[in-house]
Design a protein that fits this description.
Structural class: mainly beta
Shape: globular
Largest sheet: 4 strands, mixed
Distance between the termini: 29 Å
Oligomer: single chain
Strand content: over 45%
């Protein structure tokens, strides 16, 4: 199941919402850094302890860039096309391959593989494999 949260920042304070990651509730606070000219996603425990702070990197519609990778198995993705956060309780993978990342390009099958939090792309054509970072 995927939960969606519309990103609606204001001038009066940071954008905030709660999300369940790996079965535990967390507070998500999105702040804007004026010097960096970008948003940051900060994940706090409900007791107020900072768990992780990362630049808010937007995901295209073709694949996910998880803002929680390396910290949670649940995914938090910011989708730039519709200005929404997507929270998934479990990673959307099948046998280690992300099903939404498989796509065909000019006769090549492009698959994004996630192994031990290292993401690689494989181009598969006529049984030949080429690893691309």
């Amino acid at each position: 199941m995927i939960d969606y949260v519309n990103f609606q920042p204001t001038d009066t304070g940071p954008f905030q919402f709660q999300a369940t990651l790996d079965g535990t509730q967390y507070n998500i606070v999105v702040t804007y850094n004026i010097y960096g000219q970008r948003y940051y996603v900060n994940i706090y425990s409900t007791q107020g302890a900072l768990i992780v702070a990362r630049p808010m990197v937007g995901s295209p519609t073709e694949y996910d860039i998880s803002l929680t990778k390396g910290y949670f198995t649940s995914t938090l993705v910011y989708r730039t096309s519709n200005q929404q956060f997507e929270i998934s309780a479990t990673p959307r993978t099948t046998n280690g391959l992300s099903a939404r990342n498989a796509q065909s390009q000019s006769g090549l099958l492009v698959i994004s593989v996630d192994v031990n939090y290292v993401q690689s792309r494989l181009l598969i054509s006529s049984g030949n494999y080429l690893r691309i970072h």
